[in-house]
Amino acid sequence: MTGNSRFAVAVHILSLLVTQRDERLSSDRIAESVNTNPVVIRRIIGMLNRAGLVQTMPGVAGARLTRLPEELTLLDIYWAVQDDPKEGLFAIHEHPNPDCPVGQNIQAALQGAFCRAQTAMERELSQVTLSDMMQAILFPA
Amino acid sequence: MTGNSRFAVAVHILSLLVTQRDERLSSDRIAESVNTNPVVIRRIIGMLNRAGLVQTMPGVAGARLTRLPEELTLLDIYWAVQDDPKEGLFAIHEHPNPDCPVGQNIQAALQGAFCRAQTAMERELSQVTLSDMMQAILFPA
DNA sequence: TAACCTGTAACAAAAATGGTTACAAATCGT
DNA sequence: ACGATTTGTAACCATTTTTGTTACAGGTTA
Prior knowledge:
Largest sheet of chain A: 2 strands, antiparallel
Distance between the termini of chain A: 27 Å
Order of helices and strands of chain A: HHHEEHHH
Number of helices of chain A: 6
Oligomer: homodimer
Structural class of chain A: mainly alpha
Helix content of chain A: 40-55%
Strand content of chain A: 5-15%
Strand order of the largest sheet of chain A: 1-2
Shape of chain A: elongated
């Protein structure tokens, strides 16, 4: 598995919570569907909890969504599982040579362009709700 | 340095090639501006070369752009330095449980949403040329 | 009280990334 | 022709990130 699959797993978890709204889903049960270790699930639910997307009780199974699936977007989820919100999609090399015209201004120039690209990506994520995802999952085309 | 700064360094390199078009820029010289090891520079120039964005000659300093800066976009550069073009921006967890309604379809559903987000990002990158970057670098607002 | 669960720390394993050394082969200037 | 310089590339190390795993304290439930 390359990169960071927390985002994907978070969507998976939230989808399960919606479909099994009545049942008490333990991290063990969720881990079976995701096919990973329960601690991995608890870690991600912890991030969703701290971001205010779900509510949990220590010792009791079954996280609860704090919003309707129609009001929860992929962008909300994306931010929730980013541990450093300031860290952009693209990394910029540090310490370019300040004595070079290019090195002096490359970082600011890159930041401008990268930021626009990231914003475009985020705008797209903000237009897909968890409800939309449920549609795609439960009724695949 | 977090993540992957090859993209940023590639833009830096190409910007240097444009500003010093007459001079023969060795990887040593470029490395001084980027502030890294010359081998790192040669590796990235190698990727730009294989992608057809520059031309180089073994043993002779000075890569040459194969297109005008007005016709080279950030998206071209982005693709050039991705070693696995099939690898998306967001990772999707492998082997979800096929016996679960969610696990069964989550991958396809995620793929659809993630692909749209990535496309939006790429569209933005495709609208910025190396020439635009030179403007931002040489004449900062 | 016994069984179960969460939250979290601690650690291992694997992968990605960047930096470094080394060196063969190509080129250039004289 | 020769020596200096350069590219291209392999090999290796260190660091960081991510995931998986074990362990356990403390809360909850029947």
